[in-house]
Amino acid sequence: MSERKEGVVKQIIKDSLTKLAIDEYLRKRFDKAGYGGVTITKTPLGTQVVIYATRPGLIIGRGGQVIKKLTEELKEKFGLENPQISVAEVEVPELNPHIMASRIAYVLKKGVHYRRAGFWALRRIMEAGALGAEIVISGKLRTARARDEQVRTGYLPTSGDPAQKYLRKAVVHVQLKPGVFGIKVTIMPPEAEFPDKLRIKRPEEVEAGAAAEKATESEAKAEGGGAS
Q: Which residue, 123, 117, 158, 163, is CA-closest to 137?
């Protein structure tokens, strides 16, 4: 591997670790704001940071004081260059894996059985319109040896373009009496499109398509006649 390629790989790994650290920091700090994840994009003017939450006002603060302080913290703690922070509201929390993983962590802290918590979250996600979902809870669930419990339903491709383009994933850890539990939530949103998915057209759509095709043919004949 050339020095240039090695440098690129190291930078990618460094950026990924930084994003994970920022994500964990924001999740802990803005848990009450319904934190739903963050996207970080480098631009020529600095670093664009978009924070998703169900209660954006708690992140912005009165007069923008909280977000101003956060900007300085991201500079000092994580070395972000000129961070530009914006906050986006999560309209459907049940379709956000970060929020649902945090909700599962919360009910586990309250003493709810892990299996009941998993099925509860899975039902909420599917009722919100998801095409598929998977919840994996791992840790010392019943014995001293760690294991995992998985609940899954719907359509969840593991590879290919739809999986890379649409799948939403999040992992949250929670400290309980038996030890640390890991909660992984994967969601396929309702707007996902698949190349092998059949779509049945309504009668009015078929009629509209036929009319448009007929109009196109008429225009083509008219232009052909004019050219001759």
A: 117
